[in-house]
Amino acid sequence: MDADASSFANAVLAWYNRWGRHDLPWKRQDAYRVWLSEIMLQQTQVSTVTPYYLNFIRRFPDVVRLADASIDEVLQHWQGLGYYARARNLHKAAVIIRDQHGGEFPQEFDAVEALPGIGRSTAGAILSFAFGQTWPILDGNVKRVLARCFRVPGWYAQSATMKQLWYLAESVTPQQHTAEFNQAMMDIGSMLCVKSKPKCEICPLKAMCASYRHHSQAEFPHKKPARTRPHKSTLMLLHRCGDQVLLWRRPPSGIWGGLWSLPEVDEVRAIELWQQSFLSLAQAPGAIQRDVIRHQFSHYSLDISLAVIELDALPSKIFDADNYAWVHVDDLDNHGLPTPVRKILSMLKD
Ligand code: SF4
pTM score, two decimals? Predict the structure, then answer.
């Protein structure tokens, strides 16, 4: 290793005492709040998370109240944050904590890591922040700092690279003040060792950073060879009857799992069959609006086309009534909707 572990930790801790973020709303909180903030912060910036976090905590102030809530309500409070599997796992884990741990967040690493949606790094973060235990972390920001400091080859999907990064994280994490050290590493990653143009001149690790010494910050971490992001397309059906629209609850797993959305078909000629099967309705679809919205997922982009079907009267029955509902437009805010669907529905209101 290029840097001596204790001078690494001392430099990080000294920087944290002076410059680290001590004012985040989830600081010095119980394990439930630390856990919630760690899950919300995955793939999402602090500035985006803060209002969601405060709103979520107001409605679900402890783990038992989260476990007792319906998944629909949890998803509704998550809508707009994306990566909805996080909310579903949070709810599942809350139920396990209520039923198997007496409503108390577990303090043993294996029990924490066994909860849905919690990996090694998140378990380490929760145990160090909430209980002062000594565990390393390796979130996206920390990975970048370590990959640059120690010029770690390869990219994160490669197991040899991850093995080396975990080894380094374990080596530099101090036994004392682990929480402050972990928070500082996240802060250095998000405030100084940013993806492009890292602020090396004011970084506490400058003296021991191999990338800085070799002027190779831009090379690390190595990028995965680029792949073009595939396009997919779907056709959504908007059945509207006066102020009511027909919503469909998506299956619990997969994209937007458990959220309310619009029914979908693959192609225009499938619309009539869909209507006959689900609404016993023989009505021609209206005009198709092509590619109303392009939504970017991490692995592909989705072009959404829309068929608006105006009805004079509500159909007398719906096949699979548990997962379809006529919803008044004023009541849409009480349903967890994926962002592009919410945008489509709000465009129609204008
Ligand atoms: S010196 Fe620069 S590249 Fe190295 S850890 Fe600090 S900010 Fe990152």
Answer: 0.74
